[in-house]
Design a protein that fits this description.
three-stranded antiparallel sheet, 4 helices, 113 residues, alpha+beta
């Protein structure tokens, strides 16, 4: 059963400008994410996905409580580090897309009960 949906859209140029501050990426990405996300396109996609997840879950999450990775086929997936959200009883589906200077993230939270 779907219990939450979230979406977010961000201008890639806005993220590119923010990335001029060397602390920006470390603020929104974990060390593991930083190893794979160095371009404005990828950082913007992770920003949008994290925002979408927070909206879908409906609880306050910090940037580092949500990690976005890609599986071997390139499909994005999320790892959530919050005691208030149980990944054994919920599944988070995400999608990230980029088009003409924008990145969008969408999240659907499914209850497994």
């Amino acid at each position: 059963m779907i219990i939450g949906i979230g979406i977010d859209l961000v201008e890639i140029s806005r993220i590119e400008e923010a990335m001029k501050n060397p602390r920006f990426c470390a603020k929104i990405l974990t060390d593991k994410e930083l190893a794979d996300s160095r371009t404005p396109l990828r950082v913007a996609g992770r920003w949008a996905a994290k925002e979408a997840i927070a909206k879908a879950i409906g609880i306050h999450l910090t940037w580092h409580q949500v990690e976005i990775f890609n599986d071997a086929l390139g499909k994005p997936y999320a790892v959530i580090h919050d005691a208030g959200f149980d990944l054994s009883t919920h599944r988070v589906h995400i999608s990230i897309t980029h088009e003409k200077g924008h990145a969008a993230g969408m999240a659907v939270v499914e209850s497994l009960r």
